[in-house]
Amino acid sequence: MGVDWPAFLLVVGVMFVVPGPDFALVLRHAGYGGAVRWAVGGGIVSGLCVHATAAALGISALLAASAEAFTVVKVLGAAYLVYLGVAALLAARRSGAAPTVAELAPCGRASAYRRGLLCNVLNPKAVLTFTSLLPQFMPDGRHPLAQTALMSGVVVGVGLAYWTVVLVAIGALARVLSRARVRRVIDRVAGGSLIVLGVHLLGTPL
Question: CA nearest 194: which of 83, 73, 71, 76?
Answer without folding.
Answer: 83
